[in-house]
Amino acid sequence: MLLATTRQRGLTGLMQRPLGIQLCRFHATSTFWQDQDEQRKRRSVDYKLRGKGRQFVDFLRVVARGGNGGDGCVSFHREKFLAKGPPNGGNGGRGGSVIIRASSDETTLKRLGRACTGKRGENGLGGGRHGTKGDDLVIEVPVGTIVREVAPSTKSNSNDDDDYELNEREKREKRWVYYPRTDPDQHDVPGRKNYFNEAERMMDEEERYLEWRERKERLQGAINVDLSEHDQQVVVCFGGSGGYGNPHFLTTDNRSPKWATRGRPGEVRSLELELKTIADIGLVGLPNAGKSTLLGSISNAHPKQGSYAFTTLHPFVGTVDYADQYQLTVADIPGLIQGAHRNIGLGHAFLRHVERAKLLVYVVDLSGDAPWDDLATLQNELEQYRPGLTKRQSLIVANKADQVAIAKGNLAKLEDKVRANNIPVVPVSAKYEKNIVKLTSILRKQVETIRKQEAERRLQQQEFDQQDSLDSDSDSDDRTL
């Protein structure tokens, strides 16, 4: 009875609450969620502009390590009626190398880690069985990646005498593998020959030779390779050699060596990977000039399009297909603003992708106040980033020509401004795909001309190299005579 009365009072009090208070509560809740959405949008824009939300990475520093070699084995042949057989421990396998290979299936360096290590070689086994080689680590990168070696930071080590002795002991433990119940110090017996010291001297000589060979390789220069073709590869780190089994130390005096060596560590290199997109045509323009819309109208690409700045946050490459199976590649570069060479806006993070373009296409907005000023800004930023870049063959695409009221007068003024520079101007409307066929025809003619000139230069260079080699061979023959 008491419980029923309490429930009735609770329901009565709930029904007696003013309706306005409930509405205020719902209104406050909706306002709270609206503020949360606005903060989330603002935060996401800042997140993208800081580069944290990009799924495209074109510059990366990695540490590559070759796989360590496998350890040698200490073993002796045992069988019936043969109690003390010869040593038969196998050598360790070589560690895997680190290989960087260019692949047309990759478009970004995002999949790479900060550290890349090859597989370790397997240890040797008894019965003369050598360890297998570790698997190579093949890293696939996009075509157009430049691999550069970076000098590691040097650290000065000052050790005391006790630390030096400890390091010598550690070095001995890292170098040798002992037979069970074998102590290397027990070989120091007065009046007897120390075979272990002879083995250590032999390994010291090999260490000195390997250090000399490493210094000689460093004099040849650091790694600097441009992977500009599909399946082109470079070995950046070789794996360490495997350790020796105890038969390696067999001599006429020492018939039962009870030690083997451990595998050597692989090479370690600090590398810089820089991706420069390889495309025939590079679209350059201010934000919201219509570059993504133009790329979508002339190629098979489907980039993100929107009527706001910085729609494109990373380079987008599309292919222009012609009826006779001829193809061109077009790269959409994120928008540049004034001061981009000083890393303002998205900065010069993507200007490196313009360097490889055979033809520069400036996309300007004809509906703006002064498209000729926009063109001057673009040319100035490119020239400040890399002098001589604006001297490359170029074309001006006057976009948004469908807004006739403003575009018609701006087009005439723009043509007057650039007439002295002899840069052709093509008015188009990328949104409605007007004058696109004429634009693709002009692009093809200019790219074909550039490709023909490059082929002639390559042919001349090959002829020059062949002539130079023939001259050097004739000089060597004259010297022998």
TrEMBL record:
GO biological process: ribosome biogenesis
Keywords from the named record: GTP-binding, Nucleotide-binding
Keyword Nucleotide-binding attributed: yes
A GO term, aspect molecular function: GTPase activity
Keyword GTP-binding tagged: yes
Bias type Acidic residues, positions: 465-481
Domain Obg: 54-278
Chain segments carrying region Disordered: 458-481
Domain OBG-type G: 279-448
Family matches, as CDD domains: Obg
UniProt cross-references to Pfam families, sorted A to Z: GTP1_OBG, MMR_HSR1
GO cellular component annotations of the record: mitochondrion
Signal peptide: none
Similarity section: Belongs to the TRAFAC class OBG-HflX-like GTPase superfamily. OBG GTPase family.
Entries under HAMAP family matching the protein: GTPase_Obg
Record-linked PANTHER family: DEVELOPMENTALLY REGULATED GTP-BINDING PROTEIN-RELATED, MITOCHONDRIAL RIBOSOME-ASSOCIATED GTPASE 2
Protein name, entry field: Obg family GTPase CgtA
Gene name for this UniProt entry: ABSGL_07539.1 scaffold 8890
